[in-house]
Amino acid sequence: MIALGIEGTAHTLGIGILNSNHEILADIRKIYQPTGGIHPREASQFMSENMDSAIDSALEEAGLNFGDIDLISFSQGPGMGPCLRTVATAARTLSLHYKIPILGVNHCVAHIEIGRELCKLRDPLILYVSGGNTQILKLKDKYYRVFGETLDIGIGNMLDKFGREIGLKHPAGPRIERLARNGRRYIELPYVVKGTDLSFSGLLTSAIQKSRNNSLEDICFSIQETAFAMLTEVTERALAHLKAEEVLLTGGVGNNLRLQEMLRVMSAEHKARFGVPKNYCNDNGVMIALLGLLMHESGIRQNINDTEVKQRFRTDEVEIEWR
Ligand code: AMP
Ligand code: MG
Questions:
Q1: Residues 234-283: tens digit of each pLDDT
Q2: What does residue 24 show for φ and ψ, rounded to 5 degrees?
């Protein structure tokens, strides 16, 4: 079986193609670069303009024609409404025209499954850190349950908003990481952890204020040390509580080497295996194709009527039939 997946929840239009052995046959990513923050309508425009060429490039990379595709899946949510609708419309059109099954899939669950697959983890505790999401999850009774999460903004949005204030281009996360490497002095910032939940808005406000009379390197260093220590603390608490033996880090902020280092050290202290899917923390179509394949193999089917987009599609709404 050949599965094609289309990702398009925010900034990345991704087309991935996989076979039944989960071999990656194509991975095309086109990334919308906004001047300020992401504008939903502009992002969806970007996706519709690039859809045809991205699909053609993926088929070419895989050496296939559309007639060879057996399943089409797409990111049904959560995400920005206009982007989701553009992607869903493309997926439905292809499904109807070529008469192939269609599956709308949860973007966050897709991040988890590609991470498990590539890191060869069985039943990890998951720290999912992206632009809009910050969650600690673990499978329990057929659902990825949320054991901790941000009470206000996502960690990536916090970094991006801070970056915009100090004049960094979007996305600011990787630029903050580079500046932080040359930071030497720790500037105290609000550290807000409540059980296994976190809050980043006070940290953001304080960091913006303190950026006026401190070096950018020091303030970027301090934001990272504070926010990532908070993330590591709540992950450790959940790990001990749930007696997990593996930790999976994923989502765009998972690219950060300092965050990886903190979690690797913490996991080792608990004799837990640590994994981060290199090159697959970011949004991509391969993870959407993989989740479509897993769902299809476990007998899940959808009609066109089941494919309406879900802007607030929660991770813990999806029954995990394949585990
Ligand atoms: P996603 O929502 O999963 O696509 O992830 C995008 C978010 O990841 C944005 O907020 C980026 O700023 C952030 N990000 C990407 N790379 C890094 C990095 N190296 N360090 C920190 N944040 C990052
Ligand atoms: Mg994502």
A1: 999 999 999 999 999 999 999 999 999 999 999 999 999 999 999 999 99
A2: -85, 115
Rounded to whole angstroms, how far apart are CA atoms 82 and 130?
Answer: 20
Q: Is the CB of 8 under 6 A from ligand 1?
A: no
pTM for the whole structure: 0.96
CB 285 within 8 A of CB 15: yes
Q: Best of 159, 178, 224 to mutate for ligand 1, by most ligand atoms within 8 A of CB?
A: 159
Domain boundaries, the chain: 2-111+282-317, 121-275
For ligand 1, is residue 40 a contact (CB within 6 Å)?
no
Distance 100 CA to ligand 1 centre (A): 34
Q: Domain spanning 121-275: which superfamily?
A: ATPase, nucleotide binding domain (3.30.420.40)
Phi then psi dihedrals of residue 303, to 5 deg: -95, 170
Residue 135 near ligand 1, beta carbon < 6 Å: no
Is 2-111+282-317 CATH 3.30.420.40? yes
